Recover the amino acids of this structure.
């Protein structure tokens, strides 16, 4: 939705859609994630993820239906409808992101890197798709709307494909079955439905006695990993205070015209993707907890950098600092998420993965709230 922000900004210029939609989405994502993280050990991960993917599919489809039903008109009514759909996205994101990270936490670190690289790749691909659809209809009558409709149609198909892949393909992969069976032996109950879908029955299902395996509770896991949790909070409070709101509304007018916002978002997403692959080069991957925290705190220097670039710099400088924002966001996220779960049992890794996503989402929520401070001093801000 942020990728088609230029379309929504045209429809609802007085409502600050890039900021408002994010602020609406996050409380529901955060609230749902808090409940799921607290009850993580009792929740069927397969049902949780499938429900999330189906909710994403239904929400994206409804965006398309709403646009056709209102003939692409602005106003309070359609905006409220979009806001309600965004609420469903928040709930879906809490189901899927926490569920997938928890699931991958007890597998090999490369899977975690691939998942977070996939998140960035989806951003880069949607940005590229948005640029293509925008260019295809640039000179057509009502071209901005037609480009957005085509974009949403393709996105709806992609969400349905995610559901099919997770429900029917992933559970049958040999390496996934191996790690889930291993987690079940270590006492994890969240993987039983996934194992059953793959044709594997756990000891408890077969009526065999299983010993209760002790594990650290959530409070103990947070106490041991509070620095990693705060790392993710600080990464995303900084990123979300700049992207997407500031980049969408507060960077002025430049030679790129209506292309400026989509290009900035594409640049951020591309470098975010690059950053998530950089840790694969072991010699430049940060593993020291101390130096990871120092690197993350130093990113706050980007706030004055963006302020002065927007006020005095040209579009070239803005593209440069946006690239650095994306690169460091991706790099540091992967550095934290691939190291934190090491050394724990399967159920503990699953719980820790959910808790880290909770802190990540809290950081995003704090960031998009602070993002409104950029409007101070602007004329006609509200």
């Amino acid at each position: 939705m942020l990728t088609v922000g230029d379309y929504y900004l045209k429809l609802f210029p007085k409502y600050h859609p890039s900021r408002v939609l994010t602020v609406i989405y996050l409380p529901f994502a955060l609230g749902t994630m808090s409940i799921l993280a607290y009850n993580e050990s009792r929740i069927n991960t397969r049902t949780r993820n499938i429900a999330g993917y189906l909710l994403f599919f239904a929400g994206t489809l409804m965006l398309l239906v709403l646009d056709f039903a209102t003939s692409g008109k602005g106003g309070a009514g359609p905006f409220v409808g979009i806001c309600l759909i965004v609420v469903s996205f928040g709930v879906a994101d809490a189901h899927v992101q926490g569920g997938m990270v928890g699931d991958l936490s007890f597998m090999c670190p490369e899977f975690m890197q691939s998942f977070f690289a996939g998140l960035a790749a989806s951003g880069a691909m949607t940005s590229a798709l948005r640029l293509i659809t925008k260019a295809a209809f640039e000179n057509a009558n009502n071209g901005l709307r037609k480009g957005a409709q085509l974009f949403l149609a393709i996105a709806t198909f992609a969400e349905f494909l995610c559901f099919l892949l997770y429900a029917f393909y992933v559970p049958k992969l040999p390496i996934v079955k191996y790690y889930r069976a291993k987690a079940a032996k270590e006492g994890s109950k969240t993987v039983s439905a996934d194992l059953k879908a793959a044709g594997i029955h756990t000891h408890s299902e077969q009526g065999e006695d299983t010993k209760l395996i002790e594990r650290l509770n959530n409070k103990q896991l947070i106490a041991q990993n509070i620095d990693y949790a705060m790392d993710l909070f600080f990464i995303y409070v900084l990123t979300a205070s700049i992207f997407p709101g500031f980049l969408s509304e507060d960077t002025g007018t430049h030679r790129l015209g209506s292309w400026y916002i989509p290009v900035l978002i594409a640049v951020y997403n591309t470098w975010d993707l690059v950053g998530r692959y950089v840790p694969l080069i072991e010699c430049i991957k940060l593993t020291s907890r101390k130096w990871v925290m120092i690197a993350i705190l130093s990113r706050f220097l980007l706030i004055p950098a963006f302020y002065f670039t927007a006020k005095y710099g040209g579009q070239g400088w803005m593209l440069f600092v946006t690239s650095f924002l994306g690169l460091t966001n991706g790099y540091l996220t992967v550095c934290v998420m691939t190291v934190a779960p090491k050394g724990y049992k399967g159920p503990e890794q699953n719980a820790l993965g959910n808790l880290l996503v909770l802190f990540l989402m809290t950081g995003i929520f704090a960031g998009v709230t602070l993002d409104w401070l950029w409007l101070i001093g602007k004329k006609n801000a509200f």
About this structure: Confidence is low (pLDDT under 50) at residues 204-212. The CA atoms of residues 228 and 307 lie 28 Å apart. The first helix runs from residue 5 to 11.
